[in-house]
Amino acid sequence: MRIARFEVDGLARYGVVDGDSVVEVRGDIFGSFDRTSTSHVLNDVHLLAPVTPSQMFGPGVNFADHLHEATSITGQAEMAETPQPWHKAISAIINPGDDIVIPYDSTTGIQHEGECLAVIGQTTKRVSPEQAWDHILGYTCGNDISERTWQRNDNSMWRGKGSDTFAPIGPWIDTEFDPKAGGDMIVTLNGEEVQRASTADMYFDFGVLISYISQQLTLKPGDVVWSGTTGDPRNMNPGDEVVVEVVGIGKLANPVAMEPRSN
User: Does residue 9 lie within any of the structural domains?
Assistant: First the structure.
């Protein structure tokens, strides 16, 4: 099942995607809900980020062959023995189709990182890695935008990965996707493939990540845990279109724009 959040007549609604249509639902997507008789053509609605989390976590370096890039940015030369989760600002979230904005004071530009995101489905505290899988509602696509100079030079990644518009997510939540079976995470920039990884190659899988985080922090329904990725991301320029696809889930497309300089 694919659960979308969308806007009609200025109001945000949830619905179930059924082919080229989306059927509105009544109830709680994290509990019980029913389909209504109201349906919309999918292309006629404005898709929104599928959840409004209270917190989001990146996994740290989570692909062994991503170390070469991490070393140049963070100095990390070996895979960590445990996950190294970090907060990604929820204020960075944007919808499918919204502009990813290059800050005018960025010195080196911004880069894409196409990832799979696990959406927490129930309150999660001190669960085992095996139990954690049952606490996931489903999965969506995300683009972990990065400004590498800020990421390298700041004591934390608060602006390097958390600036406004640095977290496009969508287009919907897929409740049947299985990251353990492997789903390619593909980034295309202006139609050219520039990055590819597989969820099957995550160093710490979602069960381990969620369990580890839950030992000290309570995860709530709608919270998001990112997968990480690998490859050599490219800089993006104003006018570009970047598409993140997780095969088996869908595609998340966003244009790129430059922030106007303040007077």
Answer: yes
Q: How many domains does the chain have?
A: 2
**Confidence (pTM):** 0.94
- For residue 101, give the 3-state DSSP assignment: strand
Structure confidence at residue 41 (pLDDT): 97
What is the spatial distance between Cα 24 and Cα 151, in angstroms, rounded to a whole number? Answer: 41
Bridge partners, residue 186, by sequence: 196, 245
Q: What is the pLDDT of residues 19-37, one digit of tens each?
A: 999 999 999 999 999 999 9
Supply angle C-alpha 44, 50, 113, rounded to 5. Answer: 105
The whole-angstrom separation of Cα 27 and Cα 14 is: 9
**Tokens linked to 70:** 């991490």
Q: Do 90 and 203 have their domain in common?
A: yes
* Residue 156 located in a structural domain: yes
- Which residues, at least 6 apart from 110, have a Cβ–Cβ distance to it below 8 Å? 100, 102, 103, 145, 146, 147, 166, 235, 236
Instruction: State the burial class of residue 206 (Cβ atoms within 10 Å of its Cβ: 0-12, 13-18, 19+).
Output: buried
